[in-house]
Design brief:
426 residues, alpha/beta, ten-stranded mixed beta sheet, two-stranded antiparallel sheet, 10 helices, 12 strands, 18% strand, binds alpha-D-glucopyranuronic acid
Length: 426
């Protein structure tokens, strides 16, 4: 390479770096921190000394750091318009009402979010809500022939049976990875279940020409810090919360975000970024959600970026072989929830998501909860399989594999009952 070419390349590199690093240094310039970075120390090394400083400085700084180096920047909230479509009051053997709501994101041609709202019929007041993101369409969560089949592209993976040419068929109803959600349990215990499909926001493919990507981007995002799918799905949570806060059947102070696995990563990020979400159930979320980036068990940062290059931003892969350079770990994402309750849930056979590492993230987040004057994690070691830790930082560990089953939902509802003092309907 001659000098002129080298100089041009250098300028180009510097230009990119400068655009990307208005506030934060390039990944390669970050110092190595083998131990977990302290959530109560500012990026410039100064300690956080008051609750006010946490809320006004450190919490926004951590939110920016996670967006900058990992998930990508979230666009500003658009003004949404929600339209109620079909509704029935005799679902689940007459115990629940269903309505379908379409959220228009306010830009011509942009995708719409199809929301399924399932509420208990015997409610006397607005109800607490589990808002969950699904993998394969709302019609897979509840087997009721009146629920509309999702019209959008759906993957043909083993997670989503009954899909032909990437379109849902009748055979998909109530089938697949989302089929064992505890909807009936939740309804019986006085909770609403609200759900939407990830592909309405961003199809789960490395293709940024579809979904919300052509229509929305953060004004401060560069190519390296533009949002990936996990952020787009999380942003979907925020838009559904925009709607739920206007729905009189829903208690807007008691909305929990739920998601399994990759949807759990989105649920965790969504809840961490938005205080309107009062609780989180990132179920078996693992790498990129609830397990340590610095961990050595199960999925690694490199493995997730290699297989799913569209989930995070284009800066995160720069940490593939340098996880110690990350100025945070996932305990700080949990700390962003403080003082709100959050429960991690894991399964014995799901070693890919590093259950012990997830517990360590809760242990490391505990100091922020204590700093804010509330209980954090009450357990000093991982519970036995089949038991739950129900402190404000909660942990449920069960036998079995990577899946969502009724036992998980029972643990979520027990946890929500405790922290929200929800009276049981029966
Ligand atoms: C893969 C991926 C995980 C993810 C999981 C899922 O196993 O490696 O990170 O959580 O898929 O979404 O089911």
């Amino acid at each position: 390479m001659n000098y002129a070419t080298f100089f041009c390349l250098l300028m180009l590199l510097m230009g990119t770096t400068m655009a990307q690093t208005k506030t934060f240094p390039a990944a390669s310039a970050l110092p190595e921190q083998k131990a977990l970075p302290d959530p109560l120390v500012m990026f410039d090394g100064k300690p956080v000394t008051s609750k006010e400083q946490w809320v006004k400085q450190r919490r926004p700084e951590l939110k920016a750091l996670f967006q900058h180096y990992m998930y990508g920047y979230l666009p500003a909230a658009p003004k949404i318009k929600a339209t109620v479509g079909k509704s029935f009051n005799d679902a689940l053997g007459g115990t629940a009402s269903i309505k379908e709501v379409t959220i228009d994101l306010g830009k011509v041609g942009a995708p719409k979010i199809n929301v399924l709202v399932i509420t208990p019929n015997n409610a006397k007041a607005p109800v607490p809500t589990i808002l969950g993101l699904n993998f394969c369409g709302n019609h897979t969560v509840l087997n009721d022939p009146r629920v509309s089949l999702n019209p959008n592209w759906i993957p043909t993976t083993q997670y989503c049976p009954g899909v032909v040419n990437n379109q849902a068929t009748e055979a998909a109803r109530g089938k697949g990875i989302d089929s064992e959600w505890g909807v009936a349990q939740a309804i019986a215990r006085g909770y609403a279940v609200v759900t939407f499909y990830n592909g309405d926001l961003a199809p789960d493919t490395p293709d940024f020409t579809r979904g919300v990507f052509p229509y929305f981007s953060a004004t401060n995002a560069t190519k390296e810090t533009a949002w990936g799918n996990v952020a787009a799905w999380a942003w979907g949570f925020h838009r559904v919360v925009d709607y739920l806060r206007t729905d009189k059947a829903i208690d807007k102070t008691r909305i929990a975000a739920f998601g399994h696995s990759r949807m759990g990563k989105a649920a965790m990020f969504a809840a961490a970024m938005d205080e309107r979400i009062a609780m989180a159930f990132p179920h078996q979320a693992g790498m990129g959600g609830t397990s340590p980036n610095r961990g050595t068990v199960g999925e690694s940062v490199k493995a997730i970026n290699d297989r799913f290059p569209h989930w995070f931003n284009d800066t995160f892969p720069l940490f593939n072989d340098h996880t110690a350079r990350l100025p945070f770990d996932q305990h700080s994402l949990v700390a962003l929830m403080a003082p709100r309750p959050v429960m991690f849930s894991c399964a014995v056979e799901d070693t890919w998501s590093n259950p012990a590492g997830q517990f360590e993230m809760l242990q490391a987040a505990d100091k922020v909860y204590k700093f804010l004057g509330v209980e954090g994690l009450s357990a000093t070691k991982m519970p036995e399989a089949g038991t739950a830790v129900n402190s404000r930082l909660g942990y449920f560990y069960r036998n079995g594999k990577h899946s969502t089953i009724g036992e998980d939902w029972k643990a979520f509802l027990d946890f929500a009952d405790k922290h929200w003092q929800t009276p049981r309907v029966k």
